[in-house]
Amino acid sequence: MATETQIRIGVMGCADIARKVSRAIHLAPNATIAAVASRSLEKAKAFATANNYPESTKIHGSYESLLEDPEIDALYVPLPTSLHVEWAIKAAEKGKHILLEKPVAMNVTEFDKIVAACEANGVQIMDGTMWVHNPRTALLKEFLSDSERFGQLKTVQSCFSFAGDEDFLKNDIRVKPGLDGLGALGDAGWYAIRATLLANNFELPKTVTAFPGAVLNEAGVILSCGASLSWEDGRTATIYCSFLANLTMEITAIGTKGTLRVHDFIIPYKETEASFTTSTKAWFNDLVTAWVSPPSEHTVKTELPQEACMVREFARLVGEIKNNGAKPDGYWPSISRKTQLVVDAVKESVDKNYQQISLSGR
């Protein structure tokens, strides 16, 4: 049973990712799964059993029924992107806090409607980008903001690719226009864009231009694309995302004095630790045959998996609102919106034959 301090979370939809987040809710000390809903009672029951839900978990045979449950503080929403705007607004109107899977919406106009509903009803919203909650990420930010070790950021490259099999490329919701219609851009590109924004202290780029050569399926959904981003002061970034290339997830950020590299930024090689490399004022030996100071590796131990850290932080914010009358934290929707804005700009550039898209005033 939930203790007084535990935030009671309802899981809205039995998507594959909900398995991982359900485990995260079990692991987070300040949260518990109080209910699960699917469009069929049987599916919800089977999902609860398969994922070791507590016996006290309520099983709902419809999303509406879950929204009406008075013993739920917050919802985890892993529904297809096209359904986010409808169900997130309904959840906010019922006073339920929302942990929303990414991408947060099909476009920023939809997301703004979700945020308006959250603000009107005093509910917290956070997107399901797990890696930013890994303790490693705080150290990445620390290095990037160090004027001695890193200096000023000049450029950042980030990519996320994985090779979907035939079944994935034919049947997964991420290749279906009516479900997760943003394809590889909304799924994998979201992470690479978030990484470039994080390195740039969440300052939006001035322009976004997709690279020629994006691959779309017959339904017009992006399977692979890349883009360049540029800022007012000359900073640049490139992102690449694909369902058609080997599993790779990289961040390289280069400053005037230092370089940061992360090779497993979205899902660490090991669940119990996460590493990154840094170099500062690197140079060659006299004969230029070797480096004088090769990069150094830093490893962070993780007591809780990053997705459980995410749930813990979400539940902490909800608890502050519920128990102490705090206001929702606007940081999380603001970075979701910026990520979505860049996703939208890349898509617009692809749709407009790789035209440069200006983000001024958005």
What does this structure look like?
The chain has two domains: 7-130 and 307-329, Rossmann fold (3-Layer(aba) Sandwich); 136-304 and 340-358, Dihydrodipicolinate Reductase, domain 2. It has helices at 17-27, 41-50, 63-67, 84-93, 108-121, 135-144, 166-171, 183-199, 306-324, 331-351; strands at 7-12, 31-37, 58-60, 74-77, 97-100, 125-127, 153-163, 207-210, 215-216, 222-230, 236-242, 244-255, 258-262, 273-280, 296-301, 356-358. With 362 residues, it is an alpha/beta fold.
Instruction: Report the structural category.
Output: alpha/beta
The counted number of beta strands is 16
Q: Which strand-content bin applies to the residues?
A: 25-35%
Quickly count the helices.
Answer: 10
Largest sheet data: 10 strands, mixed
CATH superfamily of the largest domain: Dihydrodipicolinate Reductase, domain 2
Query: In CATH terms, what is the fold-level topology of the largest domain?
Result: Dihydrodipicolinate Reductase, domain 2
Provide the domain count.
Answer: 2
Q: In percent, how helical is the residue content? A: 25-40%
The CATH C-level name of the largest domain is Alpha Beta
Query: What order do the SSEs take from the amino end to the carboxyl end, as H and E?
Result: EHEHEHEHEHEHEHHEEEEEEEEHHE
CATH architecture of the largest domain: 2-Layer Sandwich
Indicate the low-confidence ranges by residue numbers. none
